[in-house]
Amino acid sequence: MWERIPALLLRLGLPADRLIELLDFYHATEHLSAFAEVAFSNSNAARKWFKPACAKLKRGHAAALLRHMQTRCAQAKPQRAASLTQELDYFQTRLPRLQYAQVAALKLPLGSGAVESLLRQVVNLRIKGAGKFWLVEHAEIMLQARCQWAAGRWDHFCDSILTAHLCPT
Q: Where are the domains of the chain?
């Protein structure tokens, strides 16, 4: 998704400066919770660390949070270090997608609910209706056609199909 969707949006004409990639905040907090459960020996201490960690992440202090997590990893017992490092790596590889303060300032959602709702509308209601039965390849064709229509590229889509049949490669 991280490779395909931005490229698609740019091809569809979205200006590059309007494209923001953001990791769903709920998914990020799940990984913070997993880190806290391993880093702390009791659940009260884990909860006490987790809540301010979420706040730091949301306020745009991801780099500082990751430095703190690195310190915890370095101080961890060997049997816990591997799990902590795995969670830390999750955040380090996604650091550019943790810009929650910037996105909140733009009054945009921090979660993927809007996208998931859109998928439900487009896929479930249009493709998976009562009495509708599809072969996988036919459903994919219908989704592609629907996306082209929604993107205002129907004429280009039809032209490309006709051209492909006239000049197969």
A: 4-105, 113-166
